[in-house]
Specification:
The longest helix has 17 residues. Helix content is 36%, strand content 22%. It is α/β, with parallel strands linked by helices. An eight-stranded parallel beta sheet has the order 6-7-8-9-10-11-12-13. Strands 1, 2, 3, 4, 5, 14 and 15 form a seven-stranded mixed beta sheet that branches. The chain folds into two domains: 96 residues, Roll (Urease, subunit C, domain 1); 276 residues, TIM Barrel (Alpha-Beta Barrel), CATH 3.20.20.140. The protein is built from 13 helices and 15 strands. It binds N-(iminomethyl)-L-glutamic acid (NIG). N-(iminomethyl)-L-glutamic acid (NIG) binds next to helix 2.
Length: 380
Amino acid sequence: MTLVVDDIGLLVTNDPALGAGPLGLVRDASVVVDDGVVVSVGSAGQVADERIDAEGACVLPGFVDSHTHLVFAGDRAEEFTARMAGSPYDGGGIRVTTEATRAASDDELRVLTAARMAELHRAGTTTVEVKSGYALDVDDEARTLRLAVEFTDETTFLGAHLVPIGYEGRADEYIDLVCGPMLEACAPHARWIDAFCETGAFDVDQCRAVLESGRAAGLGLRLHGNQLGHGPGVQLAVEMGCASVDHCTYLTDADIGALAGSDTVATFLPATDFSTRQPYPDARRVIDAGATVALATNCNPGSSFTTSMSFCIALAVRDMSMTIDEAVQAATLGGAAALRRTDVGRLTPGSAGHLVILDAPSHHHLAYRPGVPLIRQTVR
Ligand code: NIG
């Protein structure tokens, strides 16, 4: 079946060969999609089986959310409330979610995950990465990944999220479990492996062991790093050739230099810094150094319970010194780079026909009108 999205006032293609500037902007455009794949990007007025009239609005590629923790049960609103009253965030609440997630049935987790996926879709996101990491035992980590696979191909094994109850003071033993039986049970359901490299979670050697085991099992590499303070996460991610290092809230000049000299994407999660009252990273330094950057929601019950990429874009523009064009590109093409995908995050012949029609004449409104639901329609 052929679909034409017609009468587009402003089209963001993310391909400079197709239009103006780095976003490849085309005015008065249409996009023709055949069997889910873009076959042409041209002027308005093309013919097809089905037609969506954008009525002069802006159309952009669907957002690519390269960092979420969607499969979980339980609620941590009280933790958030306490934080807003002054309690610091230290990641310890992960154990609270772990208890609730282990206790939930498959059907309960499936319903919760489906609702969050639907929310992401309504918010304009068409590609979603989902991590495990709220089960922290062999059977339940594999179970949550099996559930995640029902919703996305971009699944990540995050057994090294936090030392679970029962392993206090025995982090190395837990890492042996993660790198051994847990990885064996989880690898068939995961594309990626990840670890939380942070004081209070896992140190650089433990994270290196996790990444090396994951690579040996055929998984791609990603890392949580430099979220709550300066640390070795970014350098480790670059050393290991991770596709992405996520958070990057605290970066030294050496970290930025390492990122710039690598193809590891720096993925910023500004809704996390918002929700944990961390300072925002200075994305300008990272971009000006030449590194590739992405924006993601980090949707999870503890540090960032939002599915709104628009909110992340607005924060990145307001508080991280990104231009609106850079932020929109980081939420689309940047997310695709962080997932090593070339078929999403752009609207070019051959790419996936995943697109968002805004209730606005330009993508600038995503930052200019924060908090306003500007996603008129998500097409996937
Ligand atoms: O990316 N940093 C580690 N993991 C999540 C937080 C999870 C939680 O607090 O439940 C994050 O922020």
